[in-house]
Amino acid sequence: MITAFIPGTKFPSVSITGEKCELMCKYCMGKYLKGMIKIRTPYELWSIAKGLKRRNAIGMLISGGFDRKGKLPVEPFFSTIKRIKRELDMIISIHSGLVDKDIAIKMRRSGIDVVDYELILDPIVIKEVMNLNREPDDFIKSLEVLVKEGPPHIAVHIPLGMRFGKVFKEDEAVEIASEICNSMLTFLVFIPTKGTPMENIPPPNTEEVIKVIRKTRKKIKEIVLGCMRPSELKDILDPVLIEKKLIDRIAVPRRRIIEEFKLRVIESCCSIPKELLE
What we know:
By secondary structure, the chain is an alpha/beta fold. It has one domain: Alpha-Beta Barrel (TIM Barrel), CATH 3.20.20. Helix content is 36%, strand content 17%. The protein contains ten helices and eleven strands. The chain has helices at residues 42-54, 78-88, 101-110, 123-129, 136-149, 170-180, 206-216, 231-243, 255-260, 274-277; strands at residues 3-5, 13-15, 37-38, 59-63, 91-95, 114-118, 153-160, 184-189, 222-225, 249-251, 264-266. It has an eleven-stranded parallel β-sheet with strand order 3-2-4-5-6-7-8-9-10-1-11, covered by helices on one side. Helix 2 runs parallel beside helix 3 (101-110) and helix 3 packs parallel to helix 5 (136-149). The protein is globular, with a radius of gyration of 18 Å.
């Protein structure tokens, strides 16, 4: 059965950098940080976690703006995350960005459960869209380190259409992901966001998105359609993927889609593995 995931108050996103982002990718410009719970210190993270637990949250996504090296500056928060795991028993996922071996080990030791990791192999996207002076190989090495040294669950995310609305190197990213970490793969779709340099660029063609996902079906155990996708595509893309059984999970679909296809609903982040949800 295909499952709908709706995080809401049960699994909110927390930005540990407030609204600050050094990278300022052309498709986001830090605008998506505004919708997160914004903190700046480990003490604030602990306070937020206690409040969430009192309101019956099951966990949180730790995210934020990346630095100039494409990393989330999470190191000062590891001891607090460990305390949250020990005293509050919440599920913790993290949007890590690029990592090295030291950070991967510290993430595992802190008790982080899941890493949401975007695998991007298009040099144009990396350098011109993300403003990042890194290479595709850096993204591959980061994933390898996470799988070998990091937390127990790595949820690879592949954004579609980030090359100014065009699908380009995504098939290659799927191949790499299937070789390194083939348990779960989440697809995202570029959203033209108002107030960014890419606001007038159309999202990728729906047929191209479906084509990539269809080719992935036999390579990955569990396929997820993540929450990053244009609202106007939901009425076209979501029903097709559900009807053709090309996905196993879908994040924040429309209510009518849930009712029409009788989807099971879980109030959680779509990257959380079955064993943790149970």
